[in-house]
Every structure is written in structure tokens, then in C-alpha cells.
Specification:
By secondary structure, this protein is mostly beta strands. Helices cover 6% and strands 45% of the residues. A five-stranded antiparallel beta sheet has the order 1-6-5-4-3, with no helix packed on it. It has a five-stranded mixed beta sheet with strand order 7-11-10-9-8.
């Protein structure tokens, strides 16, 4: 989600600690009742980004609050549990790879964009944009092989001076890329071990937000928040090849689906100020959570979710496919994930 919303969300209260049972936190069980055919997973505050954990029924989420946390949501019983920072979480600083990192994050973690590098076995590498006491990508090992998931912080990469990180994606062959959300002009940056940060050629645009890379590493897909579009950008090609599709809403996070299409989530509003006003004051009339399915080859798009902003699901920021549902997270102090039937 855009950095302005990160700053506005700093006024939101303290987090719920420990295990959050769906419907038992936030505005209470009654407020978590279905809205027609839309159901909810309630509890996690400001669940800004979501991604499926490979070979498990679990979803990793980021609670984008100042003293925020990572959580796991169970797709079977719709409960959530705090993963980091939490009792049982470990730190093991990989100084060989992340020697410039000053140390583990503090309680002012404020996690944002997520990415997961799938391991060959049960251990995956998670990359998490953090805003708390530093602007950085925090790196974790996520071990799903035991009786309970185990997370270990292993390092961080501090952002270049003046860059406000938003979304992150792991890159084939190592390293990662992240968006610098800035208007009128932002860009995409790559980080590689031993090489550091470099700006991606041709990536300048208004408010680059969500970010994915193709499996072969040849194409970036960027959520254009300012341009209300999804942009496809060549990687490592000269000349740069760039195309886009307009979706008619402020595109936030992007996620792959099992069939290889893209889900683009974001906010339907007349202007950027309408989004900021909604988060800052709760004046959300006319603001909607939107999701479109996009073909990564043709960029043909189909809208699949258009839902009015509510007190619990304030703005739509990220969407993933979970079975026969589309799960939509939000930021700005909401306390639930929307579950929309396909």
C-alpha cells in the first residue's frame, strides 16, 4: 500500500497479541457476520498483503501497523496466529549475506509488502518490506516442516536514500526487486548479493505499487497506483519493452493465481485524495475495494470484485485465490479479510 497510507495508519491503536480467532477480535462477532454471499476472516488488524504458503493450507499476511506483525491464516478454520514478532520466533543474523544490516527489527516493525522464495523442501525465504525504525526489506526463513511453523529473522537490506519501499518480489537466481512508491515519479529497484541496489531501466512511472516477476525472470508486472493500470516491463532487454492495461482503479498489490493469471487489487475512487481521506478520517463514501483478473500475456482484464468500503474492510489492498474464493485484505485500521465467492 502507498507510503502516505503507512503514515496515516500510525494513529491506529495497539495490536492484538497472541492467537486471534476469527470473529473474536476487532468489532466483535456480530459485526463479522456475512454480508450476503461475502464472508469474512476477522481479527488481524490492517491485513495489507497476503500470499499463500506453498504446500500448506496457510496464508502469510502482513499487519501494517506501527507495531505490526506477520501472521498466518488457516484456510480450513479461518483462524489466525501471530508469527513475528512473537514467542518462539528466532533471530540468526546472516552477516555474510546481510552484513550491512544493523540488526533485527524492533517492535516498530510495520510490515508491508510480502514475497516468498519457495524452497526445495519445507523451508522458504520470506522478504518483507518494513517501515518502522528503518526503511528496509527484512529477510526471514519460514520453516513449515515441524509441528508448528517456525520463523527465523536472518537479515535485512536498507533501502537507498530517499526511497520509500512498497512491494517486493524475489528474483530468479537470487536477490529481489522492490517498488519505490512516489508520485509523480517512482521506479523499481533491484538488489542482488554482492552488487547492491540498482534502478531498473524503463521503470519510472507515477506511484508504482505492486510488483511481480515472471518465472523466467524476463518480465516485471507492476501495479500502477497513479496510472490506474497494470504495467508489463521487460527485464534485461534492450531496448526496453513496456505495455499496460488500464483497469479504472488505483492498482495496489499483485498476486499470481494457480492458473498463471494475475490478480490486481486496489481502490476505486475518483482521486488519490479520496483514498487518503478514507484512511485518515473514515470518510469512505464512494470508495470501493476492486479486484481484476489479468492475462499476463495479452493483458486482457476482467473485473471480479467491486465492493463498497466498510468499517472493517476499509480499502482493498491485496487479493489472492483460495480455493473457490478470492480473499481481499485491506489497510488503514480495518480488522478483516473479505472472502468473495468466484
Amino acid at each position: 500500500m502507498l507510503m502516505q497510507l503507512t503514515r496515516l495508519s500510525m494513529a491506529v491503536g495497539a495490536l492484538v497479541a497472541g492467537v486471534l480467532v476469527a470473529g473474536a477480535a476487532g468489532q466483535g462477532t456480530a459485526a463479522c457476520e456475512p454480508d450476503g454471499d461475502v464472508q469474512f476472516l476477522c481479527g488481524p488488524p490492517s491485513p495489507e498483503d497476503l500470499l499463500a504458503v506453498p504446500r500448506t493450507p496457510l496464508v502469510l499476511g502482513s499487519s501494517m501497523e506501527v507495531e505490526g506483525h506477520l501472521f498466518l491464516a488457516d484456510t480450513r478454520d479461518h483462524t489466525t496466529a501471530v508469527l513475528f514478532p512473537a514467542a518462539g520466533a528466532r533471530t540468526r543474523h546472516d552477516t555474510a549475506l546481510y552484513g550491512a544490516c544493523p540488526g533485527p527489527p524492533t517492535a516498530r516493525f510495520q510490515p508491508h509488502g510480502l514475497s516468498l522464495r519457495q524452497g526445495d523442501g519445507d523451508i522458504h525465504t520470506a522478504y518483507v518490506v518494513g517501515h518502522g525504525d528503518r526503511e528496509s526489506v527484512e529477510v526471514f526463513w519460514l520453516d513449515m516442516g515441524g509441528a508448528q511453523p517456525l520463523i527465523t529473522w536472518v537479515g535485512c537490506v536498507v533501502a537507498p536514500e530517499g526511497v520509500s519501499l512498497n512491494s517486493v518480489t524475489s528474483l530468479p537466481g537470487g536477490g529481489f526487486a522492490a517498488t519505490n512508491f512516489s508520485r509523480p515519479v517512482g521506479e523499481v529497484w533491484e538488489w542482488r548479493p554482492g552488487l547492491g541496489w540498482s534502478e531498473v531501466p524503463g521503470s519510472t512511472m507515477s506511484g508504482p505499487n505492486g510488483l511481480l516477476v515472471s518465472e523466467d525472470g524476463r518480465w516485471y508486472y507492476i501495479g500502477g497506483w497513479g496510472t490506474q493500470s497494470v504495467v508489463r516491463l521487460s527485464r534485461g532487454q534492450t531496448p526496453v519493452d513496456k505495455s499496460e492495461v488500464n483497469l479504472g482503479f488505483h492498482v495496489d498489490n499483485l498476486r499470481w493465481t494457480p492458473d498463471g493469471s494475475l490478480l490486481a487489487a486496489g481502490q476505486g475512487a475518483g482521486s488519490p485524495d479520496a483514498v487518503f481521506d478514507c484512511v485518515g478520517s473514515g470518510a469512505c463514501d464512494g470508495l470501493t475495494a476492486r479486484v481484476a483478473r489479468v492475462d499476463p500475456d495479452t493483458l486482457a482484464a476482467e473485473e471480479i470484485v467491486n465492493y463498497p468500503s466498510t468499517e472493517g474492510l476499509i480499502i482493498g489492498t491485496g487479493a489472492i485465490e483460495v480455493g473457490d474464493e478470492i480473499w481481499v485484505g485491506g489497510a488503514g485500521g480495518g480488522d478483516r479479510i473479505g472472502r468473495f465467492p468466484q
